[in-house]
Q: What sequence folds into this?
């Protein structure tokens, strides 16, 4: 049997993630353009959530959408990356997380500008007129999903135990879903907007996975923890060498 090169095995998961994310995003984009298929759910979901609003739930989801918005998230990311670098004395993973957040923001703004999809009617918004940018995709959703998925991957890939991996997936999915729900519930987005944003976040995660795994296969500096997934340790990266 001919063995595939280690770099190919290393980047394959990331390539699969990129393909899956693009498939989801492409489906939502096609629905927006053709105004059929998945588009049929936009209005019913929006009207249902607006119709079941309550004071308590509205307060919770309004706070969540504020915390995950463009004012607070950059501060959270900056503090997290600096603290990670200083406390762990490594910069590759914090810089990769920061780059992923910047990339997802630019990607979201680019798609918003190109698609220019109108927001839901102002009468459905929690605060009418507070959102003026394009509706597709949801910036809150892609930002939160990218942060949780990428940060979780960067931790779980170095400590690949069942508990860590499951915790990463649960926190990432539940956190992103909660923010997506808040954007729908408050009337700022349609269903396709948040689903497309989740797809783009998976694309960003895939790119990060490819870049990180190439970095690991080529060799890690002593300050970085050795991952548990590496298909074939690079020359000189044996356990003995890393303990010196």
A:
């Amino acid at each position: 049997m001919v063995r595939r090169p280690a770099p190919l095995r290393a980047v394959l998961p990331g390539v699969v993630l990129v393909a899956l994310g693009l498939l989801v995003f492409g489906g939502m984009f096609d629905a927006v353009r053709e105004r059929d298929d998945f588009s049929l759910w936009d209005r019913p979901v929006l009207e249902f959530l607006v119709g079941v609003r309550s004071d308590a739930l509205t307060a919770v989801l309004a706070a969540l959408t504020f915390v995950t918005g463009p004012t607070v998230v950059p501060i959270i990311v900056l503090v997290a990356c600096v603290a990670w670098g200083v406390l762990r004395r490594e910069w590759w993973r914090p810089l990769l997380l920061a780059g992923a957040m910047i990339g997802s923001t630019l990607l979201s703004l680019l798609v918003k500008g190109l698609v220019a999809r109108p927001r839901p009617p102002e009468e459905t918004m929690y605060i009418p007129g507070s959102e003026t940018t394009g509706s597709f995709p949801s910036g809150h959703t892609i930002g939160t999903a990218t942060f949780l998925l990428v940060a979780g991957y960067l931790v779980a890939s170095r400590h690949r135990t069942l508990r860590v991996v499951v915790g990463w997936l649960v926190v990432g999915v539940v956190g992103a879903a909660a923010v997506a729900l808040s954007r729908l519930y408050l009337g700022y987005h349609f269903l396709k907007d948040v689903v497309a944003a989740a797809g783009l976040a998976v694309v960003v995660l895939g790119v990060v996975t490819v870049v990180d795994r190439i970095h690991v296969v080529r060799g890690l500096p002593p300050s970085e923890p050795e991952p548990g997934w590496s298909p074939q340790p690079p020359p000189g990266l044996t356990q003995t060498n890393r303990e010196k």
Summary: The CA atoms of residues 68 and 166 lie 23 Å apart. The longest helix spans residues 6-34. Confidence is low (pLDDT under 50) at residues 1-5, 231-244.
